[in-house]
Structure formats: structure tokens, C-alpha cells
Specification:
With about 240 residues, the chain is of the alpha/beta class. It has helices at about 10-15, 20-25, 65-75, 90-100, 135-150, 160, 195-215, 225-235, and strands at about 1-5, 30-35, 50, 60, 80-90, 105-110, 115, 125, 180, 185. Helix 7 (about 195-215) crosses helix 8.
Length: about 240
């Protein structure tokens, strides 16, 4: 998988790729991350990348000609993604879909935004939440992390991401490790019982319970058995 990140601030992105799992994945050749400075595609002595908006208004707008030159120079890509509050909400299913691609170009906006004509040169617009940031760099990093960890070999135990929150349509079940007791708080007995069937049942019910308590909206689309639906109805009773 190759990522090309287009940004006015490459140094905001670069450190994130030089630590932890992403660094190892790059070193192993499992993923490639190319960070390009959009300003390099601006013409003129001052390398101007933005201008005042037509019609007036506050802030500056990134120029369509500069951004499009950067997109086109990134080469053929499966997806050209603009990170913007106006995009579709990013979620795990979308991350799984994008992780199947070979080359993603992630375009980070800044200032008041990017000239709307850029929309004709991207394949998707993605938002990471209903709020406004100073630019698209954090959004690009979110997409990078969420998809890269799904690339085979990036995470040692691939089964772990199959059980992630949202991958099953539910929130993840709670996890525990040593010590078995801490300040009166004990690990649930079932987890140290060695009974794998009971452990699996407990984890599934915990995932259902957490989802019911914290994100009940997810249950509307989750694949549930009749028994699970009945169990959830019982838990929801006053």
C-alpha cells in the first residue's frame, strides 16, 4: 500500500511515520508513505498557495491550480481523498474498504478551505468528525493509521483487528492483563477459568452490553442472532 500525503506542513506529518508500528511497516516495505509539500507546486517568486475568496469574506482560500498540480503529480491513484468537514463521516467499514487499495492520495486543506473546483479532481471527501480543525493533517493521519493497520503483516496478530471496536458492528469487549487483582479490583473469574467456550460467550455479551450502554445506535445495523436480540431486550428493561 502506498500513501501520498499532500500538505502545506510536511513536518506535521513526518514525525508520525517515524515511530512505532508505522515506522516498522515502512521499514519492512509493507506500506510506503510519501509526504509532499503543496507549496512546491506554486509558481512565482513568493510561491503563493492561497488568495482572497471571490465574493468577499474572511480568511484565505487555497488555489485550485496549485492543489491540482500536486494531485496530478502524485501519479495514478486508486483514490484521491480530500479531508474536509464537508466529507462523509469516516468509519471502520470505510477504513476496511480503503485498506484494499494500492495507492491513496490524501489532500490536506488549510486556511478557510480549498477552492471548490478541486472537488472535480478527487474521488472522495472524508470527514473525521463534526468539528473544524486548522487543517486536514490530523484527518490524513487518522485515515493513514486506520487503514495501514489493516494491511496484512502490519499488525503481528491479524486476529486482533478483526475483533476491534466497529469491525464486528459492536464496540470491543473489555480487556484485562496482570496483575489479577489491583486495589480490590479483580479480573473476571471467567477469564482465568481456561474454559474457552465460556470466555467467548462472556466476551460477546460484554461487547453487546458495552454497545447498548455507550453506542446503542450501532445495534440497529449489527448482525445479531435472535437469542442476542432477546438478551439485549431483557437488559434494556427498567
Amino acid at each position: 500500500m502506498k500513501y501520498t500525503i499532500l500538505t502545506l506542513f510536511p513536518e506535521l506529518i513526518r514525525p508520525w511515520t517515524q515511530e512505532s508500528i508505522l515506522k516498522k511497516a515502512i521499514q519492512k516495505g509493507l506500506i510506503g508513505v510519501e509526504i509532499r509539500d503543496i507549496r512546491a507546486y506554486a509558481h512565482g517568486k513568493h510561491k503563493t498557495v492561497d488568495d482572497t475568496p471571490y465574493g468577499g469574506g474572511a480568511g484565505m482560500v487555497m488555489r485550485v491550480d496549485v492543489v491540482v498540480r500536486a494531485i496530478e503529480d502524485a501519479g495514478p491513484a486508486d483514490e484521491v481523498i480530500l479531508l474536509t468537514p464537508a466529507g462523509v463521516p469516516f468509519h471502520q467499514r470505510l477504513a476496511e474498504e480503503l485498506a484494499q487499495k494500492d495507492h491513496l492520495v490524501l489532500v490536506c486543506g488549510r486556511y478557510e478551505g480549498i477552492d471548490a473546483r478541486v472537488e472535480g479532481f478527487v474521488t472522495r471527501e472524508i470527514s473525521i468528525g463534526d468539528y473544524v480543525l486548522m487543517g486536514g493533517e490530523l484527518g490524513a493521519l487518522v485515515v493513514l493509521e486506520a487503514t495501514a493497520r489493516l494491511v496484512p503483516g502490519v499488525i503481528k496478530e491479524e486476529e486482533s483487528h478483526r475483533q476491534d471496536s466497529f469491525s464486528t458492528g459492536l464496540l470491543d469487549y473489555p480487556h484485562y492483563t496482570r496483575p489479577p487483582e489491583f486495589r480490590g479490583l479483580r479480573v473476571p473469574e471467567v477469564l482465568v477459568s481456561g474454559h474457552h467456550g465460556k470466555i467467548a460467550e462472556w466476551r460477546r455479551k460484554q461487547a453487546l452490553w458495552r454497545t447498548l450502554q455507550r453506542r446503542p445506535d450501532l445495534l440497529q445495523k449489527a448482525e445479531l442472532s435472535p437469542e442476542e436480540k432477546a438478551w439485549l431486550e431483557m437488559q434494556a428493561l427498567p
